[in-house]
Amino acid sequence: MTDPLLEVRGLSRRFAAVDALKDVNFTVAAGEVHALIGPNGAGKTTFIHHLSGALFPDAGKIHFNGSEITRLRMHQRVRAGMARSWQITNVFLGLSALDNVALAVQGRPDAGTSFRFWRPVDREARLFEEARTFLEQVGLGERSGRLAGELSHGEQRALELAMALATRPQLLLLDEPMAGTGPEESARMVELIEHLARHVTILLVEHDMDAVFRLADRISVLVNGQLICTGTPDAVRNDAGVRRAYLGDHL
Amino acid sequence: MAFYRPARWQQTAALVVLAALLALPSLLDVLDQSYYIGFATRVLIFALAASSLNLVLGFGGMVSLGHAAFFGVGAYVAAICQQAGLGEGLLVLPLAMAVAGLFALAVGAVSLRTRGVYFIMITLAFAQMTYYLFVSASLWGGEDGLPVYERLRLGGISLAGDAALFFVVLGALTVTMLLFSRLAQARFGRTIQAIRENETRMEALGYPVLRYRLACFAIGGAVAGLAGALLANLSGLASPNLLQWTQSGTLLVMVIIGGVGYLWGGVVGAVVLLLLEEILLAWFAHWHIVLGLLLLAVVLFAPKGVAALFGRRDD
Amino acid sequence: MTQLFLEQALNGLQFGLMLFLLAAGLTLVFGIMDCINLAHGSLYMVGAYFVAAAAQAADSFWLGLGAGVAGTALLGLLLELSLFRQLYRRDHLAQVLATFALILIANESVRLIWGPAPLLLNPPESLAGPVEIAGFFYPAYRLVIIACGLVVAGLLYLLVAKSRIGMWVRAGAANREMTEALGINVRALFTAVFVFGAGLCALAGGLLGPLLAVQVGMGESVLILAFVVIIIGGIGSIRGALVGALIVGTVDTLGRALLPTLLRATLPADAAATLGPALASILIYLLMAGILFFKPQGLFPARA
Ligand SMILES: Nc1ncnc2c1ncn2[C@@H]1O[C@H](COP(=O)(O)OP(=O)(O)OP(=O)(O)O)[C@@H](O)[C@H]1O
Ligand SMILES: [Mg+2]
């Protein structure tokens, strides 16, 4: 068996009086879509924050792609091949959709340094050509010239995805990409993720169970900061502990 | 805040103003008002200093309250060089920029680890530290400062005449503004403005945020150093007062009056503030009361500054 | 040498306690309201002027002190209601600009009213002389300042650490939204803290008045020291303010008094003569930078 792409061992984190994460052991295999579910306040976002480097653990180790990244800063993890989206939309509202993605392309090491002081960005055609392909991938090709602030909520979520993709990640961390979108937009997002999953490994945090069971190869369940079970969708659906702790009212 | 985009009309306006300024010394000469060449030079030097702060504050989003330290260090570098007999501007001015820039790099390396109110206070504290350092440095004149007896030469041409110095300052400002306008549209400018808008987002795109912030802070410091060196030559003195934190406050006021993050914000602010001072001071010795009330009015009623009253940043 | 050291240590304690009076109000305003107030030093200056003017009018130091503190607190109340309420919601830049404007107005108004010359404030006559402690003479008035400072610091500590109001204040510093959600009248709390801080400023200004010159600009240099105190102690923490103030007070005083002597013992004379005062004057800033490097949130961060 090959090593997992992401491996988390004994991750713990305490906020004042709350144990947000307790001794979490967790792996994501290369190529899979791994869904992380759990009730509100279970610690899912906190977990993503630790993976992406926005927060640092009290104890535990994180390995990615064979090397330890526990203490790496966020930008270093991005360069190591990890990209994320936020539960709350996080794009540059004052830039056009295309500019947003171009900024993401520009941040990649292979796009060259950003210590360039003379040539206007707008004339760097390569950045924009590439940015356009990512926008097209998420179905925003037609809207590239719009200010991000003028896009609909669902479009902004898609834009955020395009920005994450533009960093050319091996692992995508998606924190509730469907949050706040209507049914139609949700369906489109599911299709999009399904499509992306062919090229990139995905860790998906999501409350929409239909989406989760359709997309996930494996599911992990987090309750009160503890990982209570990991398995195939069927195994998780039938797990007594999960039913008791969490899924009881959903299934 | 919006991202900077060049505006055609502003470029035209700048060229017209530049042409007018080129003619200013002869005009003042004809009108027998040569006193005002010195004043105009002072305004341009402060426009340069305020613009350098605007790069840090407006484009980089760093509310630094210690910018005068770099301004003052530049002045002292020039004065020290010139006292030691090194009077060639092509050497002294870049040296002043380098020293001020490196100093900014060091201050930034410590202060940029912090955020918000902390950052404001720490930049302020470091500036005050520098101030005390120069006040107690008897070697460099202590509280009296270090006089500059003979102005710089530039490529062998003496700047002893007020018009010559004026043209050099005008040239420095023009080049700086051109560079800033390019920089703001280039990758670097896009990057620092995006960091200003959303630091975490930029880190999550793989940008080493601190490095860009630090570079922006240091560039601002270097240009402030240039302004300081020029001011020491204009006034014939590098005084510790240049480093006082109220001086940083004044630069900040200029930027805010002119419009934070507007390319011309620093220039407009310096012109408005120094003209106001020149006019009001003659009329009312306690003009700072008027200025204070005006500033309060700006904060409460025109939060985006005077430049914002004239139009959007990107039109 | 020991005597010099003891004397300077007492001076440092006295200076530190006065710094604490200034920093206490300031750190709470920063911590709870997330508002930067550059005009805090102006309240100190105006307070000193009020005390001096009132003491002259009443011909009594203590009456003047009381009246000056009350007057400054009233001024603080007016400022809070008219201006600061609007500033809390604004960004730091607006706060910097507005409070810088207040400094300009305060300095110039004081100059307009009392003229450019420093104002004279005499200590109470009974305290004018020195007293003997442990074999050396120390000004009685300075001892009284130390006593006052200790009492106020103790009361303040009790108030913030033990009382219900203090609990709200600490809660507000740690998490403002939560405190608001608990139904505490945050507005009134802000006003109270601000007014209290203004009163403490005037108290420090009045007590220090006889030792320093009561003059325009006295607020600015002390403001920066109060900032250093807060940075070292951690924003929003009273305990941090106390510890920071004592550190800054003693290090600064002892550094200025002893460093030149120490350097003379180790360095050539002229190097010591140039380096000594320079190093002494930046000692606390170096200390601040060092502390920040290891604890960017200060020694006692109020927010986790
Ligand atoms: N910075 C913080 N300080 C203190 N407590 C925190 C902090 N961040 C999160 N928490 C607490 O940690 C717990 C986990 O929160 P988290 O946001 O990770 O949950 P979640 O699973 O993402 O919930 P949701 O499904 O609502 O998004 C919650 O109890 C939350 O209140
Ligand atoms: Mg969440």
UniProtKB/TrEMBL annotation, chain A:
Gene3D superfamilies: P-loop containing nucleotide triphosphate hydrolases
Keyword Amino-acid biosynthesis: no
GO molecular function terms listed in the Swiss-Prot or TrEMBL record: ATP binding; ATP hydrolysis activity
Gene Ontology annotations for the cellular component aspect, listed alphabetically: plasma membrane
Keywords: ATP-binding, Cell membrane, Membrane, Nucleotide-binding, Transport
InterPro entries (UniProt xref): AAA+_ATPase (IPR003593), ABC_AA/LPS_Transport (IPR051120), ABC_transporter-like_ATP-bd (IPR003439), ABC_transporter-like_CS (IPR017871), BCA_ABC_TP_C (IPR032823), P-loop_NTPase (IPR027417)
UniProt entry tagged with the keyword Transport: yes
Tree of life domain: Bacteria
A Pfam short name: BCA_ABC_TP_C
Location of the ABC transporter domain: 6-249
SMART domains named among the record's database cross-references: AAA (SM00382)
Protein name: Amino acid/amide ABC transporter ATP-binding protein 1 (HAAT family)
From TrEMBL, chain B:
Family annotation (CDD domains): TM_PBP1_LivM_like
Key words of the record: Cell membrane, Membrane, Transmembrane, Transmembrane helix
Record field: transmembrane: 38-57, 64-85, 91-110, 117-134, 154-180, 210-231, 251-276, 283-302
Principal subcellular localisation of the protein: membrane
A GO term for molecular function: branched-chain amino acid transmembrane transporter activity
Localization of this protein: Cell membrane
Superkingdom, taxonomy of origin: Bacteria
Entry's Gene Ontology cellular component terms: plasma membrane
Cross-referenced Pfam families: BPD_transp_2
Membrane-protein topology: Multi-pass membrane protein
UniProt-recorded name of the protein: Amino acid/amide ABC transporter membrane protein 2 (HAAT family)
The species this protein was found in: Azonexus fungiphilus
UniProtKB/TrEMBL annotation, chain C:
Protein name: Amino acid/amide ABC transporter membrane protein 1 (HAAT family)
One Pfam family here: BPD_transp_2
GO biological process per UniProt: amino acid transport
Cellular compartment(s): Cell membrane
InterPro entries: ABC_transp_permease, BCAA_transport_permease
Transmembrane segments annotated in the record for this chain: 12-31, 38-55, 61-81, 93-114, 140-160, 181-205, 211-233, 240-259, 271-294
Molecular function per GO: transmembrane transporter activity
Keyword hit for Transmembrane: yes
UniProt KW keywords: Amino-acid transport, Cell membrane, Membrane, Transmembrane, Transmembrane helix, Transport
Family to which the UniProt record says this protein belongs: Belongs to the binding-protein-dependent transport system permease family. LivHM subfamily.
GO annotations of cellular component type: plasma membrane
Keyword Plastid: no
Annotated membrane topology: Multi-pass membrane protein
